Amino acid sequence: MKALLLDGENLTVRALGEAVRGQREVRIAEEARGRVEAGREVVEKALRAKEKAYGVDTGFGDLADRSIDAADLARLQLNLIRSHASGTGDPLDAAEVRAILISKINGLVKGYDGVRWEVPATLLALLERDLLPVIPSIGSVGASGDLAPLAHLSLPLVGEGEVWWKGERSPAGEALERAGIPPLTLEPKEGLGLINGTQGISGILALALSEFDNVFAHAEVAAALSVDALRGTDAAFDPLLQRVRPHPGGGKVAARLASLMKGSAIRQSHWMDEKVQDAYSIRCIPAVLGSASDTAEFVRTITERELNSATGNPLCFPEKGRILSGGNFHGEPVAFAADFLAIGAAEVGSIAERRVSRLLDPRLSGLPPYLSPDPGLHSGYMLAQYTAAALVAENRILCHPASVDSIPTSGNQEDHVSMGFHGARKARTVVDHVRRVVAIELIMAAQGIEFLRPLRSSLPLEAALEVIRREVPPLANDRSLTPDLDGVLRMMDEGSILDAVAQNFRGEIS
What we know:
Layout (H helix, E strand, L loop, with lengths): L3 E3 L6 H8 L5 E3 L3 H17 L24 H12 L3 E4 L2 H15 L9 H11 L3 E2 L2 E3 L8 H8 L7 E4 L2 E4 H8 L10 H6 L3 H31 L9 H5 L4 H14 L3 H5 L10 H4 L1 H23 L7 E3 L4 E3 L7 H29 L1 H4 L16 H17 L21 H31 L8 H13 L10 H13 L1 H7 L8
Parallel strand pairs: 1-2
Antiparallel strand pairs: 3-5, 4-6, 6-7, 8-9
């Protein structure tokens, strides 16, 4: 297993996703320790010189003008963690907590937050033992970063709060003792260093984007299968068309679809048909999926920049010996990106649902109604399209941007906030909905091709069909379709469909 070394500079969306799924061991790069210790020394010097610094020897937010006695500085940090752990709602899932942990560790080891080395090292110990803090899903407004979620993330470090460990929800103090992790006593600036920052937004957004990468690759396969099942033309995928409208994503999608369909006997069987062009849901796949791809690449750039940024407040600069208070914690950059990802992903699901509907309509598909061999007595895939429509409809609601909203907090000290945490969470929900729509299209396109036998599709598409048939037999008589959908979703998550396609594919897989 290749290790993921967190150095504060090089964390990628792909690496984070792999680590969250247990495909990579997480470590801290050795060279990071010197940076963390140098940042801590800036805080120590300020304390010795009795320099007033926000959050080090002052209150927080609207209480920033309140000086704190030296004897109370450690207590100040503990009170900060306790008071800010005020979230509510269902806990974040394990993948989201792991993503936030990785993002937080990576942010701290940049060395600008002024914490001791023991702080990121203890967070890593939690991750290594899969001892995951219980983090309520509601409470962040993306203002000073993600204060409430990160406070709940941090409470177990001092032996308080709750964690998930070995499938059980336990008091953190008991779990740390069983796991052999000594709790920390926070020192000046460390509570603030833990809870200031955008690691909630950026961690969940990176996870959503990692999941979207997988969904998008399956969406291309599903689209190619549907085009073949509907006996569409691949003329719209001609590189000449893409060359004169040179959006990168559109060109890549068109090239992949053409390669996926190359050699299909189904396509060759209607090469001389009089049909000049197909409906938009077929003809415009490069434009729609290509735009979503380009949007995802923009989001990736913003997200990876944020993952490797110092987003606390104040920040410590050893090279200048200064502690500066600013606005690096504001979640706006990733808040916008989260909204953009949700919109781009939703359109992948929206156009897929239109192909699903088309496959069911004999007037548009030339296939039996609802893809049933005995329509009337059997309803076939009628309700699968209802489910796809419900998912698409909910995505439209979720795609209202969170980042245009703002509710002032902290006595109007924090008078403009990003709502980025909302955006990241809903982006991940949208991606999951699209994942389910794509699974429905894979199932129905496979059924459509059954009616075109003995003609065969291309090698990569036939390989995909073979894998799908391991879980989903052709539909002869009505049955509950939920187990079929769950089976394809499992295969998508495991990557078995894409693996089979890749082994028979001459081209680039998304």
